[in-house]
């Protein structure tokens, strides 16, 4: 067993359930702005889906996803690909998916709770 982690649980709880100080409601200056989206439709009872990561007038990456991929999963895949492609860059990423945005928040909350 390693050394115990010393922390203040009340401070961790406050940080977990309050707004993140590093998240702003304004875009980063001097950063690229990217968008994520998905497409999902059913033909003959089979769901088809794809994803895209774009700038305002250019597709950065897009692709088909396996048959029967849900719209929610496609949104998560699009967001993950944007994060992977943006590694090391200052970037603003926009999604119209409440599901994907919520998944990112839950992942962060889960990570913080592991410390308590």
TrEMBL record:
PROSITE patterns: RNASE_H_1. Pfam families: RNase_H. Residues 28-116 form the RNase H type-1 domain. Keywords: Endonuclease, Hydrolase, Nuclease, Nucleotidyltransferase, RNA-directed DNA polymerase, Transferase. It comes from the Eukaryota. GO terms for molecular function: nucleic acid binding; RNA-directed DNA polymerase activity; RNA-DNA hybrid ribonuclease activity. InterPro entries: RNaseH-like_sf, RNaseH_domain, RNaseH_sf. Gene3D superfamilies: Ribonuclease H-like superfamily/Ribonuclease H. This is RNase H type-1 domain-containing protein. It comes from Hirundo rustica rustica. The lineage of its organism: Eukaryota, Metazoa, Chordata, Craniata, Vertebrata.
């Amino acid at each position: 067993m390693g050394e115990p982690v010393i922390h203040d649980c009340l401070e961790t709880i406050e940080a977990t359930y309050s707004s993140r100080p590093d998240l702003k409601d304004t875009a980063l200056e001097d950063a690229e702005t990217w968008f994520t989206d998905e497409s999902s439709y059913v033909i003959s009872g089979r769901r088809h889906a794809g994803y895209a990561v774009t700038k305002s007038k250019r597709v950065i990456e897009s692709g088909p996803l396996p048959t029967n991929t849900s719209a929610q999963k496609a949104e998560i895949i699009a967001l993950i690909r944007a994060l992977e492609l943006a590694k090391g860059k200052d970037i603003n990423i926009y999604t119209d998916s409440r599901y994907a945005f919520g998944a990112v928040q839950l992942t962060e909350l889960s990570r913080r709770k592991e410390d308590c």
